[in-house]
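WARN no homologs supplied; continuing
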Amino acid sequence: MVAPPRRNWYLRPLAALAIVVAEYLTLRFRFDAPRSAIINPSAPFLLPLLEVVATALLSGLFVDQLDYFYPLRVVVGLLVLASWLTP
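OK structure emitted
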């Protein structure tokens, strides 16, 4: 048996997105240094994962059962990974 959808199903992804945007806008995560000066060895591993999860949250808002936007997750993950691999 499938459980009926909840009434406020969209509030959880929107709250997560609001937290991400609020953290991005704070000065805590902003740097004035150029990108080549910042060395973070975990970034190439974590950023594709974070972007795929963010894409899944956003695309999950628009699908009902079959996720037609699944290829978008793969493309976004590959683009983020390629941006770190190219100098």
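The chain has one domain: 11-85.
OK
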